[in-house]
Amino acid sequence: MLDVRKLRLLWELAYRGTIAAVAEALAYTPSAVSQQLTALERETGVMLLERTGRRVTLTSAAHTLVAHTEAVLAILQQASTDLDTAGGTLTGMLRIGGFPSAVATILTPALISLGTDHPHLDLTVTELDPAAVPDALRGEHLDIALIQEYDYVPIATDPSLGTEPLLVEPVHLAAPNATTLDTCRDRYWITGTLGTLCHTLTVSACRAAGFTPRIRHLVDDFGAVLALVAAGHGVALVPELGTTAKPAGVVLNPLPIRRRTHLAYRRGTESHPSIDAARSALRAAANACRFEP
């Protein structure tokens, strides 16, 4: 019988890429992860990892085993959900993740609703960039979270996660005056920090318009971005949720670009009572925003 804990390590390695990343995510030492994976190879009787110096890659047999592990973990999650469903009152910790511009507009109303309807739930919120959400969910640091994609930055499919649409909002070109994307090719730009979806969106949208943006500032907080626009330090792409604190002197020029927010959770947990309650509360909060697709 294969050890689920060892299979989980191989599954994590398939997603995280390095033994060091797996060790950090699961609070192991790299040596312990390596030893467990070596033991799994002995148990299966096939080579699972190809080692080149300090790097490892998964063999075709390992990828087959990872696919089976995906199904096993989802079944175990569903089993845990079924047991918790029989408990009645919702208790325990529920960890919710969201991106900054959704904290006040979606997460806070949802928390108020959850706290009123299920007072025995221990609710925690973590603010993080959507790019970090899949790892946080797989590592069980979060139970449910908001992820997003833009028209130019689609979400990569992750078979370990379940997702569902939540909200569609327009993206604006924030500038000191009425303008278009094309006429801003010679202006300075303000984007999110490297690696964020906002940064990737700005670069991709500008290149689609035929130019590469001259980026002057890297700022993740949309309030600060709009303040810089108002001060004449550049232009920026800002989704609707990020415009709630628009200062005087900033014009929001609508673009044919949309940001789409989704709920995400580990596959097999969607019917867990606390996850289902969170889904309902988050959907109600998002519906109250009433953005046109």
From TrEMBL:
InterPro entries: LysR_HTH_N, LysR_subst-bd, WH-like_DNA-bd_sf, WH_DNA-bd_sf
UniProt entry keywords in alphabetical sequence: Activator, DNA-binding, Transcription, Transcription regulation
UniProt keyword DNA-binding, yes or no: yes
Keyword DNA-binding annotated: yes
Pfam family, one: HTH_1
Domain (HTH lysR-type): residue spans on this chain: 2-59
PROSITE patterns: HTH_LYSR (PS50931)
Family: Belongs to the LysR transcriptional regulatory family.
Protein name: LysR family transcriptional regulator
Organism for this UniProt entry: Mycolicibacter acidiphilus
